[in-house]
Write a structure and sequence with these properties.
241 residues; Fumarate Reductase Cytochrome B subunit; two-stranded antiparallel sheet; binds protoporphyrin IX containing FE
């Protein structure tokens, strides 16, 4: 006997498919360069917002979206590899690739804020550092893109393996939010992730987008040079006053 349980809440699913769209857009615009760089920056900044939202949702979201639920130690990973893992949600090994993807994307997008394309586009925090440092970060930004492609490749290979070899569908729950499981796992249905938690995570996500867009640099105190000599031309006197 099987039962249908709630697995991925709506915010996690929307996060995932938006992330897929924006990461794809970042690759296309990054490789196109030129005028597409403005859109590259916008997509990347939105990714920072999305990831910040996901980090918050990993603490206050519903059961299977929580890091405490799926981030496990080496013993659990070894148990999974021996075939002794029974559960729903990210398995202990898959959880590692989830963390790697989130961390790499965050580093990539944060690095992009300081990068430059040597032509016409600079990340919004380019002026906060030296050109040399920006060039160094840009080098890592370019290498990082290949690393991310590799991890995404592994992600897709794992999903294909589960679908075709293990005959377990992972994609459908990421679309609908529910999954058919053995009756023994009926108690695993997702709980929590209230409307208030969603508002808090959304506010954090928007705040991160706002900060990433360069406002912190614009708001930094400007050091003014005090003029010690008299101005070269005096303002004309007001006749009649
Ligand atoms: C740019 C490409 C992609 C990125 C960056 C990406 C990223 C991620 C991340 C971060 C998670 C963890 C979700 C969470 O807990 O928040 C995840 C899970 C998942 N992704 Fe993707 N993804 C990509 C493409 C795809 C595609 C094309 C598919 C399917 C056609 C897919 C299917 C899934 C599924 C089924 C899961 C849940 C895995 C599980 O049950 O443990 N992803 N993905
Ligand atoms: C996860 C998000 C991001 C991804 C996946 C990504 C990916 C890429 C890719 C594939 C390139 C082309 C690299 C090459 O030509 O070899 C690139 C270039 C670049 N990106 Fe990003 N990027 C992201 C976020 C950002 C952000 C947030 C910014 C700034 C707001 C940014 C600024 C730049 C700049 C300035 C370049 C030009 C580098 C050059 O041509 O020398 N990126 N990025």
């Amino acid at each position: 006997m099987t039962v249908r349980i709630k697995l991925w809440d709506l915010p996690t699913r929307v996060f995932h498919w938006l992330l897929l769209a924006l990461v794809t857009a970042s690759f296309i615009t990054g490789w196109t360069g030129g005028n597409a760089m403005e859109w590259h920056g916008r997509a990347g900044i939105t990714i920072i917002g999305l990831l910040s939202f996901r980090l918050a949702w990993g603490l206050i979201g519903s059961t299977h979206a929580r890091f405490s639920r799926f981030v496990r130690g080496p013993a659990a990973i070894a148990g999974y590899l021996r075939g002794g893992w029974i559960g729903v949600g990210h398995n202990p090994l898959g959880a590692l690739s989830v963390l790697a993807m989130l961390a790499l994307l965050l580093c990539q997008a944060l690095g992009g804020l300081f990068a430059n394309d040597d032509i016409a586009y600079n990340g919004p925090y380019f002026n906060a550092i030296s050109k040399n440092l920006s060039d160094w970060i840009t080098g890592w930004h370019k290498r990082g893109a290949w690393l991310i492609l590799g991890v995404i490749g592994l992600h897709l290979a794992a999903i294909l393996y589960y679908t075709h070899v293990r005959k377990e569908t992972l994609i459908q729950p990421m679309l609908t939010g529910t999954k058919e499981v053995p009756e023994t796992l009926a108690g695993e249905s997702a709980r929590g992730g209230s409307a208030l938690a969603l508002v808090v995570a959304l506010v954090l996500g928007f705040a991160a987008c706002w900060a990433a867009s360069g406002v912190l640099l614009e708001k930094a105190p400007v050091v003014q040079t005090i003029q010690t000599t008299a101005p070269a031309t005096k303002p004309a006197a007001n006749a009649g006053w």
